[in-house]
Write a structure and sequence with these properties.
This protein has about 220 residues and is of the alpha/beta class. About 30% of the residues lie in helices and about 25% in strands.
Length: about 220
């Protein structure tokens, strides 16, 4: 699959359809970082933006990401809060598109200071051994396993079930395979009734429900 690292306005990028297979979804990365790393966008606003965004590039696969070699690391933008990174990872791994994890993000690699001038800050050496965040790594591994087992998460349709200021809930479906994803954008515990069931969410927590597997963080 050919993937283009292209930037520009939506109308211009959409013209790559038919010329390459995929483009990096830098717009999604920007808004996820604003909403979940910085806390500057509530769940309802993000859900509304996402609905519009998903219709913008017909014929192109979106290569989704949280950070890369030219960006400040997500964890650094989140002030070192690994719960915000786990929440963003849940979103990334359950959304349409092809998720890309930049090396070190899965084990908590951050940076020392703002790399806006010198992007080498985003390219620090990999963490090894006891320096790795094992809880974060296990979370990413479980999300990867679930995505690999679920055709709905890889190729299914997505539908919003609920979006208010604090909580965003959506569903991915493909045939008989259904996955429900609930994300708490707030730093307070939340509880919502969705589809006849109560979903309890820890601060900055998430729940991914796919029988018989459920991830709750």
């Amino acid at each position: 699959m050919s993937t283009g690292e292209a930037t520009g306005v939506t109308e211009w990028l959409a013209r790559y359809a038919g010329r390459i297979d995929a483009i990096f979804d830098f717009d999604l990365a920007y808004y996820v970082r604003q909403a979940l790393a910085r806390g500057r966008m509530d769940a309802a606003s993000f859900a509304a933006w996402l609905d519009h965004h998903e219709k913008a590039y017909p014929g192109l696969v979106m290569a989704t990401l949280l950070d890369n070699h030219d960006m400040n690391r997500f964890l650094w933008m989140a002030g070192g809060n690994a719960e915000r990174l786990k929440l963003a990872a849940t979103l990334l791994m359950t959304m349409p598109g092809t998720p890309i994890i930049y090396y070190g993000t899965e084990v908590g690699l951050s940076q020392r200071y703002d790399g806006v001038i010198e992007n080498a800050e985003a390219r620090l050496p990999m963490l090894w051994g006891a320096d790795q965040n094992q809880e974060l790594l296990a979370h990413l591994q479980e999300l990867g396993r679930m995505r690999g087992e679920s055709v709905a998460l890889r190729r299914g349709d997505r539908k919003n079930l609920l979006a208010d200021k604090e909580v965003f809930v959506y569903e991915r479906t493909a045939g008989d395979d259904t996955v429900t994803v609930a994300l708490n954008f707030s730093e307070q515990q939340q509880s919502r009734e969705v589809g006849g069931q109560t979903i309890e969410l820890e601060p900055l927590g998430s729940v991914v429900i796919r029988e018989p597997s459920t991830i709750s963080t």
